[in-house]
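Minimal example, chain plus zinc ion.
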Amino acid sequence: MLRYSEKQLQRVEANYAGVRESIERYEAMDIPACPSCSSDDTALIQVGLIGRTMAIAGGTTKFKLIPNRSKPKWNKMYFCRACEETFGSREENMPSD
Ligand SMILES: [Zn+2]
């Protein structure tokens, strides 16, 4: 789900050129439903807290930002916002920002 208004999208794009395209790419992504609770409020897990990734995380619920993969649960591909479980193997081709 898109979190930014048109005005906010324009503002983040002014700060991080190309970030709008990234947000829209995540928004269009087909992310699998959660195998634990069947929620479709799921997100792709990405590591690294920098301005650009924070702007993407602010813009779409389909992007889950974590500071590092220190806990084994974060060594997965997807995150469920409903039950906070992670799932999916990272071995398969990993979309990068
Ligand atoms: Zn779930």
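The mean pLDDT is 91. The radius of gyration is 13 Å.
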